[in-house]
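Hi! If you just cloned this repository, the fastest way to understand the data is to look at a raw example. We've pasted two of them here, unedited. The first protein comes first, obviously.
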Amino acid sequence: MFQVKTRVDYGLVIMVDLAKNQKSPRPISGLAKKLKVSSAYLIQIAQSLTKAGLISSREGVNGGYNLTRVASKISLLEIFEALEGNIKKRCSSLPGKCPHASDCEVKGPWDIILNDVKSILSKRSLASLIKK
């Protein structure tokens, strides 16, 4: 079973909020209140998105966050990888740790599945998540 970590879930919520409100910078505090999570946690997530070049921040009274590109030019894969790193199998992230590596029956199928997941996420844009 696949599971999306909370960090990615909130990251997508931040990105969707910014995509829906592109006219002016959006402060994280309002979104944190709405989601009932700490501003510090959302700011930490926003910092990862900023570091990846997906959003930018502006300080001050009228400060907040903005997308760096239009939502249709930001892929879901970019968002996911900004928050979780490259999508890979657990066994390949722990080289030499799997006792079954030499005779693994699912390595090939998992490679195919993960490539499919990456392909789908790279083709779907942030704009596709915005309800019309």
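Ok, and the second one:
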Amino acid sequence: MFRNAIVRKPAFSLKEGLTTSDLGKPDYYLASEQHKLYTETLIRLGLKVKVLPENELFPDSVFIEDIALCTQSCAVITRPGATTRRGETDGIREVLEEFYTIIEEIIYPGTLEAGDVMMAGDKFFIGISDRTNEAGAEQLTAILARYGMKGIKVPLKKLLHLKSGISCLENNTILVCGELTNRSEFAGYNIIVVDEDECYAANSLWINGTVIIPHGFPETRKKIEKAGYETIIIDVSEFRKVDGGISCLSLRF
């Protein structure tokens, strides 16, 4: 169960965020409304949410998930693989200290963005991507091991982040799409396969028994509900334009 979340308001500079999409520039005002609804949804699901102010120096800073990993035993400050995002970690230690007594950190030559890390109980699947390298994954695995948790590396070929194509819905169930379908790393889990044309919805978010799904993916919603989950649909269209998904917008613990 999650009790807390940390979010950061979108900056007006969001339109300059890194992207691989051809969906156009995000509308700051609509993004702000969508972020407000997202935050209200987390509160509605029982979380106490700390809202950080926007950081205009970093267009992608609204995607706060990438700069820290919050586990049951410790928090880990990451070292983003995108060099333009490195400064986003400034000040996050002080924020995390409100909740954690133990804070670890990924250091050079490691790179790691927590969008590449999926928690499933005491297991943490770590995507090896353009943003997270082997050194970063090895550092995180060693950190987790110190606290009785396990890191499992998952090499990626196409996805920006691991969680661009996978979500843990708890109850031993995983939502997957694309290159993560039929992977041996996820043997033993109940797998819900997302259709290729709805792959964006593979990044959905389980919060205390309810799954938050992005708007516009009805087949994925049907599959999740058929598996026994309650769902909430929210629109994150403006964040999709800069490669952001549902989970990217918060730290949860």
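That's it. A detail worth noticing about the second one: Residues 28-44 form the longest helix (17 residues).
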